[in-house]
């Protein structure tokens, strides 16, 4: 499948989360759904993103929106991380350890570590510092270390209203930017 574009339908994947199996995209869509596709739970930057989304989740609910974070982590790693951090998430993490979603949506890995960091090395360093200050350190490596992130906002009928394929690890909208997209 080529990259997903605005106006197309989100494929109706069957997926699992850290705590539930055999869910379908069509069964979970309500209001607007943000699919925040990251790398894996042990990635410091990704784990920090999950934390920030959780802290500000009420702002998504206030916009009749929900978030699903997609990671190439297996459910056991996600449960272990969440239990050790004692952070209760108000949203689910879709566990795509076989990378079916990444491959189907054509979310490619970077060609090298340098390209993963991209031209935004200072932005990456800053985000790493923020993650460190919040108490996050790198955990287990999973999946493809060079995996790039992506984001999709999907309407209740399955239509994609926003699609972003990142060029590097920090080429993603911030929570504030996503909230503005939901307001538009």
Q: What is the overall number of helices?
A: 8
Mean pLDDT: 89
From the N-terminal CA to the C-terminal CA, the straight-line distance is: 28 Å
Helical content stands at: 25-40%
CATH class: Alpha Beta
Oligomer: single chain
Q: What do we call the CATH homologous superfamily?
A: Glutaredoxin
Task: Explain how this protein is built.
Helix 4 links the parallel strand 4 and strand 5. The protein has a single domain (14-175), classed as 3-Layer(aba) Sandwich (Glutaredoxin), CATH 3.40.30.10. Helix 2 crosses helix 7 (121-133). The strands form two sheets. The chain has a five-stranded mixed sheet with strand order 5-4-3-6-7. The longest helix has 13 residues, at 121-133. With 184 residues, it is of the alpha/beta class. 35% of the residues lie in helices and 17% in strands. It is globular, with a radius of gyration of 15 Å.
In short:
The chain is 35% helix and 17% strand. It has 184 residues and is α/β, with parallel strands linked by helices.
Features:
single chain, 184 residues, alpha/beta, Glutaredoxin, globular
Which SSEs are present, and which pair or pack?
Blueprint: E1 14-15, E2 23-24, H1 25-28, E3 32-37, H2 44-55, H3 57-61, E4 65-71, H4 75-85, E5 92-95, H5 100-104, H6 113-117, H7 121-133, E6 150-154, E7 160-165, H8 175-183
Parallel strand pairs: 3-4, 4-5
Antiparallel strand pairs: 1-2, 3-6, 6-7
Helix pairs in contact: 2-7
């Amino acid at each position: 499948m080529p990259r997903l574009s605005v106006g197309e339908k989100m494929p109706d994947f069957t997926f699992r989360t850290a705590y539930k199996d055999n869910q379908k995209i069509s069964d979970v869509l309500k209001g607007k759904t943000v699919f925040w596709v990251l790398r894996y739970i042990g990635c410091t930057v990704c784990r920090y993103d999950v934390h920030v989304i959780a802290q500000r989740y009420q702002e998504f609910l206030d916009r009749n929106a929900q978030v699903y974070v997609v990671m190439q982590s297996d459910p056991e790693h996600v449960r272990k991380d969440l239990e050790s951090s004692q952070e209760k998430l108000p949203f689910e993490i879709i566990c795509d350890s076989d990378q079916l979603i990444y491959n189907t949506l054509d979310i490619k890995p970077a060609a090298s570590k340098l390209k993963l960091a991209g031209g935004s090395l200072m932005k990456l360093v800053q985000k790493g510092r923020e993650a460190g200050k919040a108490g996050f350190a790198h955990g287990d490596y999973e999946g493809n270390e060079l995996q790039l992130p992506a984001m999709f906002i999907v309407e209740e009928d399955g239509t994609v209203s926003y699609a972003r394929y990142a060029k590097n690890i920090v080429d993603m909208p911030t929570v504030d930017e996503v909230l503005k997209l939901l307001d538009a």
